[in-house]
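Retry 2 of 3 after timeout on previous attempt. Resubmitting structure tokens to design endpoint.
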């Protein structure tokens, strides 16, 4: 759930800006279709939305055995259950039918005068026709952030148009819930996550019922990549559960004091895994006990910073960035209505223009959570993490060669893209308009070619982010209806629900059923190559998931080995001997004299294939150093080097080489002290 800085918003109150952070009718009736094909339900709610797609959904794999189809890596099917239950109006499905599912929140009647979130996010006075079914005069719309966009039949249309994987991120925010005027349930985040998970399983059962019973519907929740592949090969939609929330496991912080511990993290991860969750964010919008966040900009950033204070008792703190990556600038835009919520005498601080990085990175508890996710073979969503937090997470994954990293909706610094691909991770772009989406896709096209990967999109629908507007009826290259799906198996016409028919040219991406139309718009604007990369997206996402499941921690060949060094710092109270860097204890370390040219040598005892060396630096790190290998301890071959070391956890990967001896050769110190390593790992994989 996000809001993107390029969209200009009018100054708005804290309530809304914080909020921005973030069927059967009397029994089944026979389908109107005479078809008895597997994709046509035996019974559908009546009345109900049309699908407006003809043709059998494609099954199977391509000639290389790869899954075909699109992946939406970031959607919020059940966010109408979040934020106290009255922020997103309308339901994804209802046993009482479409008229019950697609109706507005009670306080929006009769004319939207109390649609507070609507007028705050859209502007104007918020007034609108609250009636959904059957007229849909004012909603759903590409710029209405308060109304249901994920009705089940619209998701069905996206599936029929070629989508084969959908990630349903269970989402909420306790602070947003607490400050919003209208709610009908608890603001506890984990309670909401549990409910949304259950509702997703209920939706599966609802669709199954239309097709004749359990397991027969097209909407299939999967808990491993093999299941997902099987579902996609059947021509159905594989649904993956994720989590995007600000205080997972209760891990908020108050005045920089964590409100959770390792036991809470273990219990929380175990519970989420049992619910079927396989990917998640560790922080979102507000700093928490696990990690710092990537800021929001301008007026929105100021308001969210107020929310940060209300949630944690502290404002964001910034520092100069140490590398090319940076967090979004907070800016100095005023949000007077938001700032009124602050206690008397408390003001939002000003920030230096050249200090654009969050001081808060991945905490000790955050590292514990990252490693806990790895142990459970879960995938980490890197979006929304501060540069400092994301960098440390990358370091940990690289040290273990763990591929499970996802950027699902354009919120990470784009300079991380190759680092994601190098690990084996997956990247999706936010559902921008066809021009912007195509331009960004082409910018990273060479990287996808280099790593032979597909591409994804993150619709973020029901995520209060805003969606592509219309290019206009007079555009010289409109989407022409009907059109064929990317694979050619389906014919897609304008989508009709009740009395309303939508056209991507004049309505934009108003709801999820228009995803196929948006993809056709991308083909027209960006070309077939962009769509081809997107059509490979499901395979690449499943590759990342499968590699995460199959990951095995490598054997550290250096553990307990004999070690020697050019020098060792002397202390009356502790030892900094070379063997302290290979004793398996991150609390001990080898430290050299305080001069540049120093080395640590490790004798593995016998020749071994070496592909990877990890170095866990103490603050006294190497800025310029190289990894050298030898078969005899005398003649050395340099296999990896850097001149930009910044400490922390470094991973050197290189072509597999047989050697008995490994030497870390420091050439230039990163501090005034010497070189100091808590632990060195040597691996064959």
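Retry 2 succeeded. Sequence:
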């Amino acid at each position: 759930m996000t809001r993107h800085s390029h969209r200009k918003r009018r100054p708005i109150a804290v309530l809304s800006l914080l909020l921005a952070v973030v069927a059967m009718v009397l029994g089944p009736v026979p389908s109107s279709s005479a078809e008895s094909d597997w994709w046509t339900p035996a019974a559908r709610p009546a009345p109900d939305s049309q699908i407006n797609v003809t043709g059998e959904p494609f099954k199977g794999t391509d000639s290389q055995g790869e899954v075909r189809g699109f992946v939406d890596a970031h959607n919020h099917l059940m966010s109408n259950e979040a934020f106290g239950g009255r922020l997103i109006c309308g339901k994804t499905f209802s046993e009482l039918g479409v008229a019950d599912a697609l109706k507005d929140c009670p306080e929006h009647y009769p004319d939207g005068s109390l649609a507070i979130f609507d007028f705050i996010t859209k502007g104007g006075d918020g007034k609108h026709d609250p009636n959904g079914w059957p007229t849909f005069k004012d909603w759903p719309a590409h710029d209405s952030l308060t109304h249901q966009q994920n009705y089940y039949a619209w998701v069905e249309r996206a599936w029929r148009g070629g989508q084969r994987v959908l990630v349903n991120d269970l989402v909420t925010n306790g602070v947003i819930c607490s400050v919003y005027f209208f709610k009908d349930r608890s603001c506890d985040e984990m309670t909401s996550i549990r409910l949304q998970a259950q509702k997703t399983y209920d939706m599966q059962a609802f669709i199954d019922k239309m097709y004749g019973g359990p397991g027969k519907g097209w909407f299939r929740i999967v808990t491993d990549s093999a299941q997902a592949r099987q579902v996609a090969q059947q021509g159905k939609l594989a649904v993956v559960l994720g989590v995007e929330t600000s205080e997972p496991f209760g891990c908020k912080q108050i005045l920089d004091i964590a409100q959770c511990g390792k036991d809470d993290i273990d219990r929380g991860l175990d519970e989420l895994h049992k619910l079927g969750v396989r990917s998640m964010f560790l922080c979102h919008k507000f700093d928490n006990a696990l990690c710092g966040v990537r800021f929001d900009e301008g007026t929105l950033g100021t308001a969210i910073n107020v929310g940060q204070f209300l949630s944690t008792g502290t404002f964001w703190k910034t520092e100069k960035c140490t590398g090319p990556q940076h967090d979004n600038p907070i800016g100095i835009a005023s949000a007077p209505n938001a700032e009124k919520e602050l206690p008397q005498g408390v003001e939002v601080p000003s920030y230096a223009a050249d200090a654009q990085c969050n001081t808060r990175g991945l905490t000790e508890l955050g590292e514990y959570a990252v490693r806990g996710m790895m142990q459970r073979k879960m995938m980490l969503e890197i979006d929304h993490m501060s540069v400092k937090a994301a960098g440390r997470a990358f370091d940990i994954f690289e040290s273990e060669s763990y591929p499970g990293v996802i950027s699902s909706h354009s919120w990470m610094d784009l300079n991380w893209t190759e680092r994601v691909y190098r690990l084996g991770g997956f990247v999706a772009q936010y559902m921008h308009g066809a021009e912007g989406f195509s331009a960004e896709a082409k910018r990273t096209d060479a990287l996808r070619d280099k790593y032979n990967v597909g591409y994804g999109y993150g619709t973020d629908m029901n995520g209060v982010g805003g969606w592509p507007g219309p290019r206009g009826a007079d555009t010289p290259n409109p989407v022409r209806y009907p059109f064929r799906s990317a694979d050619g198996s389906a014919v897609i016409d304008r989508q009709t629900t009740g009395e309303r028919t939508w056209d991507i040219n004049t309505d934009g991406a108003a709801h999820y059923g228009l995803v196929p139309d948006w993809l056709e718009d991308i083909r027209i604007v960006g070309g077939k190559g962009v769509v081809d990369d997107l059509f490979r997206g499901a395979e690449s996402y499943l590759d990342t998931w499968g590699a995460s499941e199959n990951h095995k921690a490598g054997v550290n060949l250096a553990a307990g080995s004999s070690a020697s060094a050019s020098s060792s710092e002397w202390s009356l109270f502790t030892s900094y001997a070379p063997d302290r860097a290979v004793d398996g204890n991150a609390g001990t370390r080898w430290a050299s004299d305080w001069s540049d040219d120093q080395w640590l040598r490790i004798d593995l005892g016998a020749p071994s294939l070496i592909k990877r060396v990890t170095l866990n630096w103490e603050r006294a790190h190497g800025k310029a150093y190289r990894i050298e290998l030898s078969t005899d301890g005398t003649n050395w071959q340099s296999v990896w080097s850097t001149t930009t070391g910044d400490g922390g956890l470094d991973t050197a990967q290189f072509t597999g080489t047989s050697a008995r001896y490994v030497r870390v050769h420091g050439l230039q110190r990163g501090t005034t002290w010497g070189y100091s390593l808590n632990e060195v790992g040597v691996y064959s994989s």
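Attempt log closed. Residues 552 and 653 are 17 Å apart (CA to CA).
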